[in-house]
Amino acid sequence: MAGWPSLRVQSTLLFFSLSGVMALRSGDSPLRIGQVPPRIVLQGEDGGQVNGKPFSTDILRGKVWYFVYVDPDVRDYNEALNEKLKARRFPDEKFGSVAVINMEATWIPNFVLSRMLAEKQKKYPRTIYVKDYNRVFVKKWGLKDDNYNILVFDWEGKLRYWGWGDLPPQRADAVVQLIEKLVQQCPCP
Fold it and tell me: What is the CATH number of the domain that holds 59?
């Protein structure tokens, strides 16, 4: 069918969607593929943006969002995927990225992580960097703790993909293709 990913990509994405549903059946998470997840606000003792402002998941609308929730100890996972997305140079009005750091999941002191994140924010100004001091996303969305979570949201804030760990190349390519497809379909300005 014109406009659809290849059959290979379709089956890969279906596998990931089904694996997400199976994990959801076990009661781990309120996340559902195709639905908007519960709202989360990080501020004060719970965390917030690196610039000190509160962070709300309400931002995950209006364009396609690549959202990662990362234990700093596995921050090097998925570098190839991140580089592929960076190389695509999606327009800001159609694509955004958020990196939430699970500050409680590491032995690295918070003041050191905060410095590292401030530097990253300067180096990558298109990404919103967020600190989660109390594993709020683990508790409220059931994200995998001590891991590297990857989520993709469409312009309506609906979850379109959730995976975790260091993705193998085939799965990473499927995520890039999904994002490309969503960006093309986005009715964003």
Answer: 3.40.30.10
The reply to whether 2 falls in a domain is no
pLDDT band at 68 (very low <50, low <70, confident <90, very high): very high
Quote the number of domains for the chain. 1
Query: SS3 of 41, please?
Result: strand
* pTM confidence score: 0.84
Torsion of CA 7, 87, 123, 188, to 10 degrees: -60
Residue 97's domain comprises: 7-185
- pLDDT for 10 equals 38
Rounded-to-integer distance, Cα 48 and Cα 28, Å: 24
CA distances from 53 to 30, 42, 46 (A): 26, 9, 12
Distance CA 63, CA 184 (A): 11
